[in-house]
Design a protein that fits this description.
By secondary structure, the protein is α/β, with parallel strands linked by helices. It has eight helices and nine strands. The structure holds nicotinamide-adenine-dinucleotide.
């Protein structure tokens, strides 16, 4: 799909991978709506790229319904949804203070998995109502899993479960939406230089970076955005989860 002139929604667009994707979409001529709980970041970026920021906790049905409706009223129904909102709150199943709080596990799953599904259902419904473009294509949905979906580390029980489910959601959604010409894909990033990672101590960052075979550094958010843009452009890509990770395979810890 040529995204020029079409509407796009990016969740978690106020920071990191979502912000880089929003910049790339705007540079390609898309009308970009940024959905985030971090309104400072989302509004600053919206000003920079000529987009629009909407406050939205992706795990809330009412928030997402209101934000998608408001984005549609501003830009028209979105042809592209990129799900980047996410949290990586760590915690052992049984830590030194006892069992992980069930609500801590639930919150990670609610944001990463239910939030992804929440936007997929709403944006997907709007995409199905749009006129088909070349090849009968109506829309593209890209969600963000993680290499932790496949090699979750100790302390990543909630995160890895949520991201494994995002990966597993991709094929059934692509199969269901195929008849409408809506493609569904996911990216499983390795380690990317965003506030999520750069918030860790330098020692942890150095040990993480050392484990990446090639290139031996953190990924740049623009490299993630580059894959999103290719996924949008290449109509043959569908129903797949693509690792973007410099060949890293996470170790147990
Ligand atoms: N950075 C990495 O190395 C890496 C690796 C693998 C996967 N990921 C995934 O990529 C995605 C983007 O992460 P990032 O590194 O850019 O992190 P980030 O912290 O820079 O950005 C995440 C954004 O999501 C927003 N957010 C959090 N909870 C939300 C909610 N309930 N509703 C709406 N917005 C919410 C935050 O406010 C923030 O703007 C996440 O899903 C993350 O799990 C990141």
């Amino acid at each position: 799909m040529d995204i020029k002139g079409h509407a796009a929604i990016v969740t978690g667009g106020g920071s990191g991978l979502g912000a880089a994707t929003a910049r790339a979409l705007a540079a390609a001529g898309a009308k970009v709506a940024l959905l985030d709980v971090n309104m400072d970041g989302a509004e600053a970026l919206a000003r920079e790229i000529g987009g629009k920021a909407f406050k939205c906790d992706v795990s809330s049905a009412t928030d997402a319904e209101a934000a998608v409706a408001a984005a549609k009223a501003t830009h028209g129904a979105a042809r592209v949804l990129v799900n980047c909102a996410g949290v990586a709150t760590p915690g052992r199943i049984v830590g030194k203070d006892g069992p992980l709080k069930l609500d801590a596990f639930r919150r990670v799953v609610e944001i990463n998995l239910i939030g992804t599904f929440n936007l997929m259902r709403l944006a997907g419904a709007d995409m199905q109502s749009l006129a088909p473009l070349a090849d009968g294509e109506r829309g593209v949905i890209v969600s963000t899993a993680s290499v932790a979906a496949f090699e979750g580390q100790i302390g990543q029980a909630a995160y890895a479960s949520s991201k494994g489910a995002v990966a597993a959601l991709t094929l059934p959604a692509a199969r269901e939406f195929a008849r409408s010409g809506v493609r569904v894909l996911a990216i499983a990033p390795g380690l990317f230089a965003t506030p999520m990672l750069l918030g860790m101590t330098q020692e942890i960052q150095d040990s993480l970076a050392a484990a990446i075979p090639y290139p031996n550094r953190f990924g740049k958010p623009e490299e993630y955005a580059g894959l999103v843009m290719h996924m949008i452009a290449n109509v043959m890509l569908n129903g797949e989860v693509i690792r973007l990770d410099g060949a890293i395979r996470l170790q147990p810890k």
